[in-house]
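Reminder to self: tokens first, then the designed residues, so the page reads top to bottom the way the pipeline ran.
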């Protein structure tokens, strides 16, 4: 994304600052998830996309900023449904992954970030604190009047969980800690068919769908020798797999 300015918030100067338009040093770091909230408040831009340090840009995403003409903040759902409980939220209001957050630099959003910071700081003082910052984000967002949009997973694809990539789509932002980001992104976006990513050692591919893995191995016999015979043991109404295109 050479056309977008980049500001890095860090506890020290990076070895190659040429990648960034500006580097801002964080003071008094807690070296935890809470360190990322206040930098969001200090963004020098009118419109900002915040990225965790373990994200990878696989393709351009300028179209995201069009959302901010209508919405104030946007982020993708997390794949976890049963994490830290938030009694103030109904179960149907799922947890949001805070590794990629798109937002306007507006007073209403600044108020939201401060409420999130205060709530998370309070939760960290409990005898059983949450595992990360997302339960506090979920609670504050549920009670917030902000115009929120849930991004599709193409803009925050979580590599540690199985996931679905819709037909005619391209994964733009990958999220996870691995040294194989580039080949994984290339593998994911080699097709525009509906496809499923599994963080395991096998791969399955068919005309109608694909199952992808980091290693990219294809086991074409898996469908015919393992999966298809297993369908014989299912009731006829449950046999929903077809080799025809969707």
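Designed residues (246 positions):
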């Amino acid at each position: 994304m050479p056309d977008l300015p980049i500001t890095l918030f860090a506890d020290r100067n990076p070895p190659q600052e040429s990648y960034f338009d500006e580097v801002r040093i964080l003071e008094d770091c807690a070296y935890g998830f809470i360190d990322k909230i206040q930098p969001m408040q200090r963004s020098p831009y009118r419109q900002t996309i915040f990225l965790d340090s373990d994200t990878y840009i696989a393709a351009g995403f300028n179209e995201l900023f069009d959302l901010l003409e209508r919405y104030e903040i946007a982020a993708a759902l997390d794949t976890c449904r049963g994490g830290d409980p938030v009694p103030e939220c109904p179960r149907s209001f799922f947890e949001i992954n805070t590794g990629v957050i798109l937002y306007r630099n507006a007073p209403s959003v600044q108020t939201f970030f401060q409420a999130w910071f205060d709530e998370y700081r309070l939760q960290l003082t409990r005898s059983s604190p949450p595992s990360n910052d997302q339960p506090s984000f979920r609670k504050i967002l549920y009670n917030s009047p902000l115009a929120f949009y849930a991004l599709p997973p193409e803009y925050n694809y979580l590599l540690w969980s199985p996931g679905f990539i819709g037909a005619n789509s391209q994964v733009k932002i990958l999220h996870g800690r691995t040294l194989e980001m580039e080949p994984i992104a290339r593998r994911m976006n080699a097709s525009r068919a509906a496809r499923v990513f599994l963080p395991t050692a096998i791969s399955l591919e068919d005309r109608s769908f694909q199952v992808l893995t980091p290693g990219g191995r294809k086991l074409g016999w898996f469908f015919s020798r393992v999966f298809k015979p297993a369908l014989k043991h299912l009731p006829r109404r449950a046999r929903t797999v077809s080799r025809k295109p969707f």
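The CA atoms of residues 166 and 194 lie 5 Å apart.
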